[in-house]
Amino acid sequence: xxxxxxxxxxxxxxxxxxxxxxxxxxxxxxxxxxxxxxxxxxxxxxxxxxxxxxxxxxxxxxxxxxxxxxxxxxxxxxxxxxxxxxxxxxxxxxxxxxxxxxxxxxxxxxxxxxxxxxxxxxxxxxxxxxxxxxxxxxxxxxxxxxxxxxxxxxxxxxxxxxxxxxxxxxxxxxxxxxxxxxxxx
Length: 185
What we know:
Helices cover 49% and strands 11% of the residues. The chain has seven helices and five strands, in the order E-H-E-H-E-H-H-E-H-E-H-H.
C-alpha cells in the first residue's frame, strides 16, 4: 500500500513513520502546516522536517505556505474552536494531494500526539478522504509517545514547546493566575 503521511512536525512523525515502514507500507511524507506561528517557528519546523526526511530517506512533498491572515480570519471570532480549523484545513489538503498523486490512502502524525483530539481527527480525515476518493488510514500512534520523544532527542531534532498556532503559544507561555489572584512567573 502507498500512503501519504501528513507530518505536523518532525518529532511527531518518527513513531508513525517507523510503524508504517515496519508493516511494509510504502510511505511518503507530506508537509502542509500553514497554521504554525510566528513565521520563524514555521520556518524552523519546516527545516527540521526536511532535515529528518533526509536522515531517514523519506521522500517529502512540501507545500510551503504560511497563511497568517487566513488562519486569523478563520479563528479570531472563536479561538476555542481553532483546532477544528487546523485539522480540517490540513487533512483536506493532504487528502487532495494524496488523490491527485495517486496514493491509496493518507494518514497524519497528528494521531501521535496525546494532546490532540483523536476522534475529531479521525472523523475529519474520513470526511476528507470521502470527498477526494482516497482512504484515511487511522491508527492510534499514542502508545509510541515516549519512544518518539527519545528518538527525536537521539537525532538532535528541534523539539517545539507548543502545538503550533499563536493561541497555543499564548497558552504555553502566558503566566497563569494563581488562586490568590496573583500571576505565576
